[in-house]
Design brief:
The protein is built from twelve helices and 18 strands. By secondary structure, the protein is α+β, with helices and mostly antiparallel strands. It has three domains: 197 residues, 3-Layer(aba) Sandwich (Rossmann fold); 89 residues, no CATH class; 87 residues, no CATH class. It catalyses: cytidine(34) in tRNA(Ile2) + L-lysine + ATP = lysidine(34) in tRNA(Ile2) + AMP + diphosphate + H(+).
């Protein structure tokens, strides 16, 4: 855990637990580590709802962990089978865990991927034609917007984790999809034929991922240094760029790509070739963001997400997260044209004000839509803010 910290006094962590051997081992090991530091662990037991028995399995896992003093929350996703099922399950699982962390004010979400998972990830990305950044595999720690995502077990073999669970007297849940040949990862796992994760092929792949990770770290340091010289990222979800200082080399492309993803609300940065083209033009739209010749990078208002119910922990537009309980019936969405009639702080461009998150009361009984509050503008007044906060929190932070 030390390389993933610092964690400070009495740390609080949310751990993703499926009931499988590796996530169970994660929960057991974290609980022991946190007990020594007077910290607390919450196990987020994710029930995807894809198998009839999954709800009962989640309840059983919760009983196991609660009997060992580990607090649990069952997170039901109610997914349906269909295309891209594993990707949808992964995304839904992570979103549920991040929402749990946000609701509890927890800054770390731990996942149980291990050395064999890292080897499989490198193979998957190589087959998909990933570059050096993708071949670095899963990062031990990365900013996931609302929390730091940590993977403490990446160097551990699955055989060792199985032994941890067995020594605790637990019989883990086995998800049959992990061996289903319809899924590419399962076929690669079968091809490696190394269930223990201690064979030479797994070791070589994990070592290769580590080497690529070293290269990624060097690149990220260069990107961070360039951004420090050439960019100012605002809590209001826009950036000011010194385009001359940013440059047009590979580091500049990576830096602008990260900013485009964060400000455009995307899960991934646009393709490097497209980012390089935008840099060459010095203006235009890409990835849901708009770059002006004056170096202002802001959200493309026409591409913003529709309003969502304003509930504690909800994310809107891939960029902002609400904390607090504003009241029933309110929606969180773009301020839009209403920005023209409100005062705004010096230095906040009018075009940016249109893209700010606002609380709205939907139309009903002949009433028009009512603007209730704009937290970023302290409207209507700080004392009437309902005790809520809407903060800029794009998944993965500004660069990644």
């Amino acid at each position: 855990m030390a390389p993933l910290g610092p964690f400070g006094m009495a740390p609080r962590i949310v751990a993703g637990v499926s009931g499988g051997p590796h996530s169970l081992a994660l929960a057991l090991l974290l609980a022991e580590w946190l007990a020594e530091r007077r910290g607390t662990l919450t196990a987020g037991i994710v029930d995807h709802g894809l198998r009839p028995e999954s709800a009962a399995e989640a309840a059983t896992v919760a009983r196991w962990l609660e009997s060992r003093g580990i607090a649990c929350r069952i997170l039901s996703l109610d997914m349906s089978p269909g295309p891209a099922m594993q990707a949808r399950a992964r995304d839904g699982r992570l979103a549920a865990l991040l929402a749990l962390a946000a609701a509890q004010g927890v800054g770390w979400v731990a996942l149980g991927q291990h050395r064999a998972d890292q080897a499989e990830t490198l193979l998957l990305r190589a087959l998909a034609g990933s570059g050096a950044t993708g071949l670095a595999g899963m990062a031990p720690a990365r900013n996931a917007g609302g929390a730091l995502l940590i993977r403490p077990l990446l160097a551990a073999s699955p055989a060792w984790l199985e032994a941890v669970v067995a020594s605790a007297g637990l019989v883990p849940v086995r998800d049959p999809s992990n061996a289903d040949p319809r899924f590419t990862r399962a076929r690669l796992r079968a091809a490696l034929a190394d269930a223990a994760g201690e064979g030479p092929a797994t070791a070589a792949l994990a070592e290769a991922a580590g080497a690529f990770a070293g290269r990624r770290a060097v690149r990220q340091a260069a990107v961070a240094a360039r951004l420090a010289r050439a960019a100012m990222l605002s809590e209001h979800g826009f950036a000011r760029l010194d385009l001359a200082a940013l440059g047009q080399d590979a580091v500049a492309v990576a830096a602008l790509g990260g900013l485009l993803r964060a400000i455009g609300g995307g899960l991934h940065a646009p393709a490097p070739a497209a980012v390089a083209g935008l840099l060459a033009r010095r203006a235009g739209t890409l990835g849901g963001a708009r770059l002006t010749r004056q170096g202002l990078l802001l959200r493309e208002d026409a591409a913003m997400a529709p309003p969502v119910p304003a509930t504690d922990g909800v994310a809107w537009d891939g960029r902002f997260r609400l904390s607090g309980t504003p009241g029933p019936g309110l929606m969180l969405g773009a301020l839009g044209a209403a920005a023209a009639r409100l005062e705004r702080p010096a230095g906040l461009p009018a075009a940016v004000a249109r893209t700010l998150p606002a609380l709205w009361l939907p139309p009903a009984d002949g009433r028009d839509t009512v603007l209730v509050a704009v937290p970023a503008l302290s409207y209507p007044a700080p004392e009437t803010s309902f005790g809520i906060r809407v903060r800029f929190a794009p998944p993965g932070g500004a660069v990644g």
